[in-house]
Specification:
Chain lengths: 115, 110
């Protein structure tokens, strides 16, 4: 069973550009969550999608957005990039957020560097 | 909002020593999870706890879900070099959002 796949693994952008990151969950997992990881702040919750709908959202500006497709694959987009957006972006999938045992399985992450 | 206080932030120990780290919160959680992250990888689940007071072991790892549902600890016995990494606690609340602590970075001295 393939794990959570994130692409690209590494990317470099400049300020003002936008970026799209992709996540393919474990087969059968319908919930996808996104986290931003920086050295000082740990893992910060961005948003969670289930059945193509955003269920939860963290405290990030509107420049951060996401979506989920009918096959459960998800993308997140960051527009007008700032230096502080440099981070490891982690995607995690789970079977069903209402199962009462919402255990996340993470991908290896997409490391974004903004110059 | 909900926050988890994880301590210590970092630890330097000798190989073979036991390790203990914990997470506390002012909020109640329904689930406590412990993850480990190796360099360049995403966090990997070590132990999941679903019931207040639950004590669960996974090899040399033991974790407990606090009886108040506001805390959890992780113990590692007889540490080995591959235990090096960052350990995260995570709590799942009623809204199913999973909140992470800032991590404990474990270093093992030769």
């Amino acid at each position: 069973k393939a794990g959570v796949t994130q692409t690209p693994r590494y990317l470099i952008k400049t300020r003002g550009q936008q970026v799209t990151l992709s996540c393919s969950p474990i087969s059968g997992h319908r919930s996808v969550s996104w986290y931003q990881q920086t050295p000082g702040q740990g893992l910060q919750f961005l948003f969670e999608y289930f059945s193509e709908t955003q269920r939860n959202k963290g405290n990030f500006p509107g420049r951060f957005s996401g979506r989920q497709f009918s096959n459960s694959r998800s993308e997140m987009n960051v527009s007008t990039l700032e230096l502080g957006d440099s981070a490891l972006y982690l995607c995690a999938s789970s079977l069903n957020p209402d199962s009462g045992a919402n255990v996340l399985t993470f991908g290896a992450g997409s490391r974004l560097t903004v110059l | 909002g909900q926050q988890l206080n994880q301590s210590p932030q970092s630890m330097f120990i000798q190989e073979g020593e036991d390790v203990s780290m914990n997470c506390t919160s002012s909020s109640i959680f329904n689930t406590w999870l412990w993850y480990k992250q190796d360099p360049g990888e995403g966090p990997v689940l070590l132990i999941a706890l679903y019931k207040a007071g639950e004590l669960t072991s996974n090899g040399r790892l033991t974790a407990q879900f606090g009886t108040t549902r506001k805390d959890s600890f992780l113990n590692i016995s007889a540490s080995i070099p591959s235990d090096v990494g960052i350990y995260f606690c995570a709590g799942g609340g009623r809204d199913d959002k999973i909140i992470f602590g800032k991590g404990t970075r474990l270093h093992i001295l030769p």
